[in-house]
Write a structure and sequence with these properties.
Length: 103
């Protein structure tokens, strides 16, 4: 289902800093994104952060951004969450409806 004018699609990239690796952060991120019907991906970096990209209804992306800033996985310790390249889309840019964990 595509978005209507009252409920635009938003896409945003993110990077999460802190104790976010080896605490199931990617798995919890994937689960939360699926619960919000977001599309995108998440992966660990060699710098010890977690990065990803998400898109969906603007209110759902906002909810996910708040979750990434403040909650994360139960054992994570989020120090900072950066969001960039936010843009409004007429339709989804990810062909898959899934939110995947990249290696």
């Amino acid at each position: 289902m595509e978005s209507s004018n009252r409920d635009p699609i938003t896409r945003v990239d993110f990077e999460i800093f802190g104790k976010v690796q080896r605490v199931n952060f990617r798995k919890y991120t994937q689960s939360k994104a699926k619960s919000l019907n977001l599309r995108g991906w998440v992966k660990n970096t060699s710098a010890g952060t977690v990065v990803g990209s998400m898109e969906g209804r603007s209110r759902d992306v906002d909810c996910m951004m708040e979750w990434l800033r403040t909650t994360g996985s139960p054992k994570s310790e989020i120090v900072k969450a950066d969001f960039k390249n936010a843009k409004k889309l007429d339709k989804h840019s990810f062909s898959s409806t899934a939110f995947i964990i990249k290696k």
